[in-house]
């Protein structure tokens, strides 16, 4: 979630991609092994095809007079939250069964990036004069954007087990970024030693079996990973404690005075389309189902990646996780949004550098507190980009 240069495999001949994607810049353009540098935030552009197909049904129209006030729900705890968005967020959680939404406060933010900061602000003790440590077990997602005097990045949570260190805030990312592992808090199990923020942005049925509704103190979600709308910059937190929720709202007030109502309305519309397709109603039966679409695509991609990896004999992937999904009512494999690829070639200590030599720009494992022989691969890019990745990977011997 925090800004980082992820990974991009960009076709040498980018054609129409260049015009629609200014994030890509090609440094040179000729031979098959030309290295093309791309900066990407793990953009979930795979979903574009789905929403193009959905067409008008998913369009949000906003009249000029609408949503002009700072306030949406002046009497509510989260006073800038649009009631329609609140309804749709609670509805999609009830539909999928991935989190307890009833009995929780809903705090909306400009992406989970802001909610992360808000949650850390809310949990950090204000009485001490040194910043509270923020930890996560390796491999963990980039945490170099902790912009506050209240907290500082303290590293691998496993190092804080037992008697080391004092109070810490633990980030529990499950399924984990970068390796897709299902995680539980390491520190909060030691009594009183840690407060946890659960980042559940990938806990949706296209990525992992939904085993039960999560019910942690603070749970973060985002449109970006649910439906692909990263550009809408809309995330939410389900928060058990009202004082923590109020502090988070105060943080959002202090940094952006609420969250764009235009974005909230659009998100409400998108979530409504997602839920409608799974509920009996006046639909014509041909409505597209987002989770089915995404599972099909990611399943195909994982199979292609496994085949490419098997063909080269140079790489390995984490073992596939399977489980019973209470949403699809089937035993299914997890299809993480990122692949955590390990290089096994003799003499290769730095997998990212090795791949760069083959025209693949990857984010190296040491940036996640892990092994330099690993890289993180974005599985959610557009088809054209993903296909070039598979081609280039397959040609490595
Ligand atoms: C599974 O889903 C059903 C509704 O379809 C629900 O009643 C039940 O509590 C769920 N079980 C778990 C473990 O989430």
TrEMBL record:
Query: Could you tell me which residue ranges the Alliinase C-terminal domain spans?
Result: 40-396
- A Pfam family found in this protein is Alliinase_C
So which cofactors does this thing need? pyridoxal 5'-phosphate
Matching entries from Gene3D superfamilies are given as:
Aspartate Aminotransferase, domain 1 (3.90.1150.10), EGF-like, alliinase (2.10.25.30), Type I PLP-dependent aspartate aminotransferase-like (Major domain) (3.40.640.10)
**Keywords for this protein:** Pyridoxal phosphate, Signal
According to the UniProt entry, its GO molecular function terms are: carbon-sulfur lyase activity; transaminase activity
What span is annotated as the signal peptide, if there is one?
1-15
Q: Name one GO biological process term.
A: amino acid metabolic process
Q: Which domain of life is it from?
A: Eukaryota
| InterPro entries recorded | Alliinase_C (IPR006948), Alliinase_N_sf (IPR037029), Ethylene_sulfur-biosynth (IPR050478), PyrdxlP-dep_Trfase (IPR015424), PyrdxlP-dep_Trfase_major (IPR015421), PyrdxlP-dep_Trfase_small (IPR015422)
> What is the similarity comment for this entry?
Belongs to the alliinase family.
Q: What is this protein called?
A: Alliinase C-terminal domain-containing protein
Natural source organism: Triticum aestivum
Q: What is the lineage of its organism?
A: Eukaryota, Viridiplantae, Streptophyta, Embryophyta, Tracheophyta
């Amino acid at each position: 979630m925090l800004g980082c240069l992820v990974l991009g495999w960009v076709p040498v001949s980018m054609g129409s991609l260049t015009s629609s994607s200014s994030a890509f810049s090609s440094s040179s353009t000729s031979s098959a092994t030309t290295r093309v540098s791309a900066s990407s935030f793990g953009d979930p552009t795979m979903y574009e095809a789905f929403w193009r197909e959905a067409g008008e049904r998913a369009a949000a129209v906003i009249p000029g007079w609408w949503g002009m006030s700072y306030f949406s729900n002046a009497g509510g705890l989260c006073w800038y939250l649009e009631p329609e968005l609140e309804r749709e967020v609670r509805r999609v959680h009830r539909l999928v069964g991935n989190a307890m939404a009833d009995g929780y406060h809903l705090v909306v933010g400009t992406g989970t990036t802001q909610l992360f900061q808000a949650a850390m602000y809310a949990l950090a003790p204000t009485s001490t004069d040194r910043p509270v440590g923020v930890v996560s077990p390796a491999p963990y997602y980039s945490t170099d954007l902790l912009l506050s005097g209240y907290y500082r990045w303290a590293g691998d949570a496993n190092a804080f087990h037992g008697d080391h260190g004092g109070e810490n805030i633990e980030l529990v990312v499950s399924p984990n970024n970068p390796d897709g592992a299902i995680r539980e808090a390491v520190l909060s199990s030691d009594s009183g030693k840690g407060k946890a923020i659960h980042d559940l942005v990938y806990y949706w049925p296209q990525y992992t079996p939904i085993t039960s509704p999560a019910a942690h103190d603070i749970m973060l979600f985002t449109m970006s990973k649910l439906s692909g709308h990263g550009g809408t910059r809309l995330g939410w937190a389900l928060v058990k404690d009202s004082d923590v929720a109020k502090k988070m709202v105060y943080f959002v007030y202090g940094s952006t005075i609420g969250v764009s109502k235009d974005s909230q309305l659009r998100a409400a519309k998108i979530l409504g389309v997602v839920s409608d397709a799974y509920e009996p109603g006046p639909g014509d039966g041909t409505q597209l189902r987002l989770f089915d679409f995404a599972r099909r695509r990611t399943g195909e991609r994982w199979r292609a990646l496994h085949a490419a990896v098997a063909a080269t004999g140079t790489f390995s992937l984490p073992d596939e996780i399977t489980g019973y999904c209470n949403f699809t009512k089937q035993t299914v494999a997890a299809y993480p949004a990122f692949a955590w690829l390990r290089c096994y070639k003799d003499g290769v200590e730095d997998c990212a550098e090795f791949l760069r030599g083959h025209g693949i720009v990857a984010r190296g494992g040491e940036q996640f507190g892990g092994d330099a022989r690993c890289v993180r691969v974005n599985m959610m890019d557009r088809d054209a980009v993903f296909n070039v990745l598979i081609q280039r990977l397959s040609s490595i011997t």
